[in-house]
Amino acid sequence: MSRETFFYLCDKLKPRLARQDTSFRLALPVEKRVAVALWRLASNIEYRTISTLFGVGKSTVCRCVRDMCHAIVALLSSIYLRSPSEQELEDSARLFLSNWGFPHCVAVVATLHTAIITPSNNASDYANPAGWLSVLSQVAVSGRGKFWDVCASFPGGTDPADIFQNSALWVTAAEGGLSPSLPPVFMGNSLGYVLLGEACYPLQSWLMKAYPEEKGRAAAQH
């Protein structure tokens, strides 16, 4: 992260992260709170190690991470996680075609498993197909590699297709929200843009999915 980006982030998050000094102690500067949280998010090292690096308590490290994540959601999510404009859709489709040779596509939809420690309740719900515990996130990524839709924190055992079909992104796409009022022309016909998705997703006029891998062929390849 560049110095300019770091201070830009601090400035944007300041309304939620700034604290007042008290008669008992001086408040931790916003810049230090952001630095502590970024270090944790970037490295995933133990709170104890970050505590030593920055000269703060472990509980302070935990609060910095929690507070910054909450501040990002409250102050920045509406700016960056939003439906793209018609021009952004057109630009994304152009990038998919020029960079990967896939025409008329504006985003890729996929899921990501993040490992967790064993939860106190319903632990079996978090066991994913690979056998370890996780939470599942669904993301849509544009041709510029930017996230513009996120659904997070589902138990790892959840079917990705269920997450997608119950998401706001599905509703938007099904109602034609991913194409301009006058659909662009593709191979001589007016056709709305499409998304690319995982093999487990149901095929739609606006969703192209990968072919499901045959178990016998997959085993032979491995």
Q: In terms of per-residue confidence, which ranges show pLDDT below 50 for 5 or more consecutive residues?
A: none
What percent strand? 15-25%
Strand order of the largest sheet: 3-2-1-6-7
What does the overall shape look like? globular
Count the E strands.
7
Structural class, by secondary structure, is alpha/beta
What is Rg? Answer: 22 Å
Q: How would you describe this protein?
A:
InterPro entries: HARBI1-like (IPR045249). This is DDE Tnp4 domain-containing protein. It comes from Eleginops maclovinus (Patagonian blennie). This protein is α/β, with parallel strands linked by helices and 222 residues long. It has 9 helices and 7 strands, in the order H-H-H-H-H-H-E-E-E-H-H-E-E-E-E-H. It has helices at residues 3-17, 30-43, 47-54, 58-75, 77-80, 86-100, 160-165, 168-174, 215-221, and strands spanning 105-115, 134-142, 147-155, 185-186, 189-190, 194-197, 207-209. The protein has a 5-stranded mixed beta sheet. It has a two-stranded antiparallel ribbon with strand order 4-5. A hairpin with a 4-residue loop joins strand 2 and strand 3.
